[in-house]
Amino acid sequence: MANVPEDLHYSKDHEWVRVEGGEAIIGITDYAQNSLGDVVYVELPKAGDEFAANESFGSVESVKAVSEVFTPVAGVVAKINEALADEPEVVNSDPYNEGWMIRIKMANPGEVDSLLTAAEYEDFTKAESE
Amino acid sequence: MVDFGGWDMPVQYPAGTIKEHLRTRTHAGLFDVSHMGEIDVKGADAIAFVNKLTSNDVGKLVDGQAQYTALTTPKGTVVDDLLVYRLAPDHLLLVVNAGTTDKDWDWIKANHAGEAVELNNVSSEYCQLALQGPDAQKILQALTDVPLSEIKYYHFTHGTVDGVAGIISRTGYTGEDGFEVYAPANQAEQLWNKILDAGETGTPTGVLPCGLAARNTLRLEAGLALYGHEIDETTTLLEANLGWICKLDKGDFIGREALARQKAEGVQRKLVGFEVTERGIARDDQEVLIDEERVGKVTSGSPAPFLKKNIGFAYVPVGYANAGQEIQIDVRGRLVCAQIVKPPFYKRPK
What we know:
The structure holds 2 protein chains of 2 kinds. By secondary structure, chain A is α+β, with helices and mostly antiparallel strands. In chain A, 18% of the residues lie in helices and 35% in strands. Chain A has a 6-stranded antiparallel β-sheet. In chain A, strands 4-6-7 form a 3-stranded antiparallel β-sheet. The longest helix of chain A has 12 residues. Chain B has 7 helices and 19 strands. Chain B is globular and about 60 Å long. The two termini of chain B are 36 Å apart. The mean pLDDT of chain B is 97. Classes of the chains: A alpha+beta, B alpha+beta.
C-alpha cells in the first residue's frame, strides 16, 4: 500500500505539493516512484525558470522508461534539489522528504486548493490501479 | 505486466530491475523465457534444409551442440536470429524469438521446396527457463544427475531436472555462464519454484527471479543484438557486425549472393556501441549526430546497471564507425555527448 501523507496536496499526474509560506515544494508520490521502478536519473530546471500550472518541469528516468514531471502550480523556480544529480535513488527511498525536486515561488497561492487531498488522491490511485 | 508478442510478462519482479541485473552478474538470476518459439525439423534433409535457410553452417554441428545463426532474406537482411540445436543427424530444433515465431514459421514453410523434412511448430509444448550467473551451475546441479561441468559452452544434453525430462543447454543471453532448460510446458511452474528454492531465493546472495527489463539490460551490457532493435528485415548481418555467422563458403543459402556482394563492396553503415560521456541517458530511436549532421539512430539505449554507465548501440556511416569517435545523441531536444566503443561493454571475469 502506497504511503500518502495527510498534510500534502496531490495532482492526478502523481506529484505532491507541500506549501511553506508562499512557496510550493514539489516531488513525485510514493505510488509514482513505485510504478516507475529504480530511478536512475532526474532532470530538473534551473532556478529562475518560470512555469505555468501543469507544465512539464523535467523528467524522471528509470532503467526502462522516461516520465515527464509536471508542476501542479504556476510560478518561478526558487530552488532545485541538487542532490538528486548524484543520488537519484532517494526519489525511491524517500519520495516525500529527501526526494523533493523543486521549490516554486507560487504565482497564485490559491491554486493549491484545486488539488486533491490525501484521501482523494488515495481513491484516485485505487481507481487507477483497478 | 506487459504484452510481449502476445505473452503477459513481468517487466520486473519485486526486487526491481537493478537488483535483478546485479544479482545475475554476482550470483544468479532466473528468467522465464517460455515465450521463445520452438520449431522442430526432422528428416533426412534436415541439415541441408536448415543450411539453405540460415547463414551459419549447420554442417559444422555435432549431436548435442547448438549454434547461433540467422534466417536471412534474399537481401541478406534478417528474418530472425535463432539457435539451432542438433538433436540427431536428421533432427534439429530451432529456437526463435517470440514476436517472430509466426512469421518465421510461415517463412520456413514457404521456403520448403520438397526437401525430406517434417516441420512442426512445437512452441506451445515447451517451457524454457534460463538460469544465469556464476552460481548457476551449482544451483542446477542440486536438481540433476547430469554432470553439468561436462557440458561445454553452446552444448546441451538430454536429462532430468527435479525429475522432469528435458534439454539442458549451456547457453544464455546475459553475458554470464548459465543454462537454459527446455521442458514440457505443464512443468514450468514446478521447475521455476524448485530452481528458486535450490538457489535459496529470498536470501541476500540467493537467486532472484528476473523480468524482461533485466534481460534487456544484461544482454545490452554483454553486447548482444536484440531482434527488432539492432537487427531486422532492413539491416544486413554484415552491417550488424554478424559477419562471424555468415559462412559464405558453406554452399548456397538464401541471401548468400547479396551478402557476398556486400562483403566485396563494403558496407555503407555499421552498428557500433557507444558510452554516454556526460549526464543523460540515450534511448531507443534517438538520433545520432556527428559534426552537427544527423547520421544515424540509436537501436538500443539504456543505463547499464553493473557498469554504472549509460550505453547503447547505434547505426552510423561506416567512415565514423571507429572506437573513440565522438558522437552526439539527441535526447529529447538536448544534445548529449557520447563516444563510440567496441562491444561487448561487459565481459565476465574468467
